[in-house]
Amino acid sequence: MPKIKYTKNELKAQRDALSRFTRYLPTLLLKKQQLQVELRTLDAQIDAKRSEEDQARTDLNAWVKLFSEPFDFEPYIQVKEIQRSSGNIAGVTIPIFGSISFVEEMPDLFKTAAWIDAGIGILRQLICLRVERQIIEEQHRLLTDELRTTSQRVNLFEKVKIPECRENIRVIRIFMGDQQTAAVARSKIAKGKSSNIAESV
């Protein structure tokens, strides 16, 4: 605990600090609750995207056995652009998925099997779902970091700063009360001595 001065100015400073901490704490608690709600929402979204990815893989496995010879899908599933924007949750800037576009190239329909188109479509869907999930996971990471910081501040205020200020105020008040009592006692003693001197003269 830092050393405090036993003065009226220090008492005022401690009262001001206590007022500031108690005023700011509800805002921090509200932010903490908001972040916890948002993180639960993001957890559900991540699970939903994973389920969609699993379903797309299941759909892919259903007909992938039809390929009798290997086919190079890479030229047809190259990502051209991922559009992202940014949003704000509880004062935290987060990325938001916009859209994804692929290089516009399709195989020659006369030289490839009929299911190649469906395969390209599902692979593109898988890439899109993975990118969306990664962006949501990035949101989750950023909000988790902010929740950790906010929780630390809440604990600091609740368990350290506010009790410390209250204790400092109590100690300063006791000290000042003792000083005032001592001053009154000294005054009475001095008054008593001066009246004794006056009587003896």
List its salient traits.
201 residues; mainly alpha; Helix Hairpins; two-stranded antiparallel sheet; 2 helices; 11% strand
The counted number of beta strands is 2
Rounded average pLDDT? 86
CATH class: Mainly Alpha
Task: Tell me the CATH topology.
Answer: Helix Hairpins
Helix content: over 70%
Distance between the termini: 55 Å
- Characterize the biggest β-sheet: 2 strands, antiparallel
Give the SSE string.
Answer: HEEH
Q: What best-fitting shape do the alpha-carbon axes yield?
A: rod-shaped
Number of helical elements: 2
Approximate strand percentage? 5-15%
List unreliable stretches of 5+ residues.
Answer: none
Radius of gyration: 35 Å
**Order of strands across the main sheet:** 1-2
Number of individual domains: 1
Supply the CATH architecture.
Answer: Orthogonal Bundle
Alpha-beta content class: mainly alpha
Would you write up a description of this structure?
This protein is mainly α and 201 residues long. The chain has a single domain (8-191), classed as Orthogonal Bundle (Helix Hairpins). It is built from two helices and two strands; from the N terminus they run H-E-E-H. It has helices spanning 8-64, 116-200; strands at 79-89, 92-102. A two-stranded antiparallel ribbon has the order 1-2. A hairpin with a 2-residue loop joins strand 1 (79-89) and strand 2 (92-102). Helix 1 runs antiparallel to helix 2. The longest helix is centred in the last third of the chain and has 85 residues, at 116-200. The mean pLDDT is 86.
